[in-house]
Design goal:
two-stranded antiparallel sheet, single chain
Length: about 110
Amino acid sequence: MPIVVDRRTGKIISAPEITQEQRKLFWEIVVKNWAERNIDKLVELYVEKKTLSVAEAAQVVGVSTRYMYDLVKTEGFPTIRVGKRLLVSAKGLERWLDEQAQKGWNPDG
């Protein structure tokens, strides 16, 4: 049976008899594949802008804006508050994604 992931939350819904090591490898592959497909978007936005709105960051990462708001609450996520606005550092986002790929990021915790 294949691994089934909820696209809205990023959580694994169904993964019978999957080990923690397999789960880590799965997320490592997901993040690496994202980086390969979307690095041009990130570079293009970074060249033009130093910061991104949460919606722009969601578009770059390829997740919903709602899910990105959950991600920005993650410890170590590169956010900047300017008044009431919450912004994401474009350079910091790239660095954060690389770090997650290196350590096998898993949104399930």
